[in-house]
Amino acid sequence: MSEKEEKEFLAARDDVVKKVLEAQPDDEILYDLAELFKVFGDSTRIKILYSMFETELCVNDIARLLNLSQSSVSHQLRILKSSKLVKFRREGKSIFYSLDDEHVRAIISMGMEHVEE
Amino acid sequence: MSEKEEKEFLAARDDVVKKVLEAQPDDEILYDLAELFKVFGDSTRIKILYSMFETELCVNDIARLLNLSQSSVSHQLRILKSSKLVKFRREGKSIFYSLDDEHVRAIISMGMEHVEE
DNA sequence: TTAACATATGATTATTTGTTCATATGTATC
DNA sequence: GATACATATGAACAAATAATCATATGTTAA
To answer: What is the pLDDT of residues B54-85, one digit of tens each?
Structure first.
């Protein structure tokens, strides 16, 4: 590369960087996005989410199903709740959890497609 | 709840648990799925991925763009590479990275929709 | 209101992980 | 080959986090 070409290359890169920077969402949004994926990024939580793919389950169901302590399930459900990934309703002594919306299913399905390649 | 109702309730729950267990993918798959989302679950990596949404970038571009050290970017790109989320090509001294496939964009977009609610 | 059951939560601990610093590898130009 | 530049990598350290244990809260039925 000649010296002139070199200069042009650098200027071109600067241009690209500047444009990308303008198109980039606010840091805050990207931070929230990462936080969201972090919730999906634990195998216990993924198992819990997946078990609710077709039906609602109570805490005890999940604990037995996945061979986890009640405490552990409860802790994880709290995280899933606060990320709005699951909703719940009380019925007597039990509390039934289910996936909050179609986004959750869609995100998991997309991930599955990538993994199953 | 009468004692009989109680018994029926427990039997019904057992049934549900059994059915869910049968429908659940292998642990190995769910583990891989969690590992995949874990990669998306860091704000530095999300920023890197997002910056490549429209165009390929070299390591130095990304470092300047996101105000990160070259080393840090390189480490993260290694993780993104091994998860098959980005591909790359060499051009002279530089190495240009880009998103590997449409799944990556789709997963990020889905996440964005959830976050932006 | 007490006993029994279901779920939630706080503190502690062990593990995982992202960044930094130093250095190595790879490429082009002289 | 020597130099300069771009990227990769290994080791070490600090911060984040999931499981466990103990205990608290909430609900039902006697």
So the answer is: 999 999 999 999 999 999 999 999 999 999 99
Structural domain boundaries of chain B? 40-116
Class assignment of domain B40-116? mainly alpha
Extract the tokens encoding B35. Answer: 């590992």
Model-wide pTM > 0.90: yes
CA angle A81, A87, A89 (to 5 degrees): 120
**In angstroms, how far is D7 C1' from B90 CA?**
11
Q: Write out residues whose CB is closer than 7 A to strand C.
A: A 1, 3, 58-60, 70-71, 74-75, 77-78, 88, 93-95; B 38, 42, 44, 68-69, 71-72, 75-76, 79, 90, 92-93
3-state secondary structure of A100: coil
